[in-house]
Amino acid sequence: MTSPILNQIGAVFIPVSDIERSKNWYCSLLGLPLDGEVLFGHLYVVPMQGTGLVLDSKIFTAESVLKIPAFHLNTEDIDAAYDFVKKSGAEIITDIENDHWFNFKDPDGNVLMICRC
Q1: Contact yes or no for 114/75 (Cβ under 8 A)
Q2: Distance (Å, rounded) from C-alpha 42 to C-alpha 57?
Q3: Quick one: pLDDT at residue 29?
Q4: pLDDT tens-digit readout, 46-74
Q5: Phi, psi of 22 (to 5 degrees)
Q6: CB contact set of 50 (below 8 Å; sequence gap of 6+)
Q7: Is 14 buried (19+), middle (13-18) or exposed (0-12) by CB count in 10 A?
Q8: What is the pLDDT, as a whole number, of residue 35?
Q9: pLDDT digit string (tens) for 2-19?
Q10: What is the C-alpha to C-alpha distance for residues 96 and 59, in angstroms, rounded to an integer?
Q11: Angle at Cα 95 formed by Cα 14 and Cα 57, nearest 5°?
Q12: pLDDT at position 96
């Protein structure tokens, strides 16, 4: 039997409490322009290469905050990425592990990962 479901991830949703603040934070983190439009008052689709990233303030609750990374953001220079995130004021929750990855939190406490690929 052939499945009609593709083996692709379309987008990852991140619960955020303040859509404008989160839009600005994620765009700054990724070096993207801040001029994108918030949809329906609660959604922002971060312009990504590959799998989409959707910030959604409608799904935010204290319980919905990501306690572990649901994905990782790529970097070619893990040390520069670590320094950049640290200088941004984000809470870093691990050191660079195995010269390969580290975890930190967004303004709502969602745990994110950056990984050298």
Answers
A1: yes
A2: 5
A3: 97
A4: 999 999 999 999 999 999 999 999 999 99
A5: -70, -40
A6: none
A7: buried
A8: 93
A9: 999 999 999 999 999 999
A10: 31
A11: 15
A12: 98
Residues in Cβ contact with 75 at an 8 Å cutoff, skipping those fewer than 6 apart: 81, 114, 115, 116, 117
pLDDT tens-place string over residues 39-48: 999 999 999 9
CA distance 21 to 19: 6
Contact assessment for residue 10 and residue 52, using Cβ atoms and an 8 Å cutoff: yes
Three-state DSSP class for 91?
Answer: strand
Rounded distance between C-alpha atoms, residue 48 and residue 45, angstroms: 8
CA dist 84 to 87, 93, 114, Å? 5, 15, 11
How far apart, in whole angstroms, are the C-alpha atoms of residue 108 and residue 52? 20
3-class secondary-structure state, position 86: helix
| pLDDT of amino acid 34 | 94
